[in-house]
TrEMBL record:
Keywords noted in UniProt: Calcium
KW Calcium (keyword) present: yes
Regions that span the bilayer: none
Every EF-hand domain range: 139-174
Span list, region Disordered: 1-27
UniProt biased composition (Polar residues): 11-20
Name used for this protein in its record: EF-hand domain-containing protein
Keyword check for Transport: no
Organism this protein belongs to: Symbiodinium pilosum (Dinoflagellate)
Amino acid sequence: MASKILEAAMSQRQNESGSAENEKLSESISGDVSGQVYGLLAAQALSELGFFEPLPPGTPSSLPLLPERLKQDCTAAFRTYRRFTDDGKEVIDPYDIKNALMYAGIFGTQLNQERLFPLTEAQFVHVANEAYMTRFSPRQVALAEDLFGKFDADGSGALELDELHMVIQEMTGVDEAGLEEKRFGSGFAAWILMKSVS
């Protein structure tokens, strides 16, 4: 489905002679759809780089930390759904975990209800981290660090918006003047281009 949408969007980018018309693409597609098209282009580029390959069982992996704002949302969700046990421990019951994750903004989580148990705050944040972030293989970490190093022009250890624009432009071939962070979502840069993957 996504490839068909991408193909249709790309065909809209070409005139009869076959040359790309990026300005007309921006004008002809509404902002929301345009952002989705650029997101699809970025996802396609990431797929070609191997970022969506499943990790075989037992493969060593690294899990990036949650963005601080989302971690705070998870703490608020925990405190909203927690209950106190007879011995005074704060936990979230198994049947509330999915709702608490959604409260924090993490949707579509597949949970095995039979294997769940009451979670402490630290355990809940860990589950949220696993649900929201993507594990990277050592090869994927090296690739992300190479991409990061190539585009962190100012050596700040973070990608500024103009540096992120260069990454997206190189990966997708789309030169979108005035690229806004919201087109890709704040998670896009955090997911792919975090310098410190733990």
